[in-house]
Amino acid sequence: LCLHGALGARAAAAARAAASTRSVREVSAGLESFELVLRDEQDRLDELRLAEGSDCVRLRLALVFLHLRAGRDGAAMSAALDLADAHPHARAAALARARCLLRVGQRAEAEACLRLATTPADAPLTDGEAIETDAQWARELALTMLRAMRAAERRQEQAAELYERGHFAKAALAYGEAL
Questions:
Q1: Are 66 and 19 in contact (CB under 8 A)?
Q2: Fewest CB atoms within 10 Å of the CB: 30, 84, 88, 124?
Q3: With 60 as the cut, is the pLDDT of residue 11 above it?
């Protein structure tokens, strides 16, 4: 959405620069520009005495994913925590945090966040999600990620069993598939 202008031309241009594969300098400039767009939107809402809505959730979420894409795991986690602080009940916030936790190998914590993100779509929405489609998107992606985690765990168990039986080559293949 962001790359295609749904959150404004400035956000789209900054996101495209941040997602660039041409240079690290362009990525850094894009991330700085994107953070400025988010701050400007927050300032605008503060002036109008309005709470953050779905556009800010989407901007914050995009920032997390742009940092992850750039390999800036610490900055991504910081942005995910900011998103969760601003919108503690948003399914998208739980999903963003889970993605960051998985990136740094904190699987159990990530799984807990994914479970939070899979709250049924008919559960009451709170301050973090003004649009049901955002909640549904986060829920569906979290469910997909949880299924993949379960499949990997099953494959690891199969690999361990093969190893115990002395089928080392098959075990190595199974471990590779699990990863």
A1: yes
A2: 124
A3: yes
Q: How far is 86 from 82, CA to CA, in rounded Å?
A: 6
pTM score: 0.82
The DSSP result for 79-95, as a single string, is HHHHHHHHSTT-HHHHH
Are the C-beta atoms of residues 4 and 20 closer than 8 Å to each other? no
Roughly how many angstroms between the first and final C-alpha of the chain, as a whole number?
30
Asked if 2 contacts 60 with a C-beta cutoff of 8 angstroms, the reply is no
CA atoms within 13 A on the CB side of 65: 16
From CA 66, how far away is CA 104, in angstroms rounded?
16
Tokens, residue 112: 């807990």
**Chain centroid to CA 103:** 10
Q: Look up residue 26 and give its two tokens.
A: 């362009």
pLDDT at 123: 55
Residue 2 has pLDDT above 90, yes or no: no
* pLDDT single digits (tens) 113-158: 999 999 875 555 454 444 567 788 899 999 999 999 999 999 999 9
Place of tokens 């190998």: 105
- Looking at per-residue pLDDT, the higher value among 108 and 179 belongs to 108
Identify the burial level of 166 via C-beta atoms within 10 angstroms of its C-beta, where 0-12 means exposed, 13-18 middle and 19 or more buried. Answer: exposed
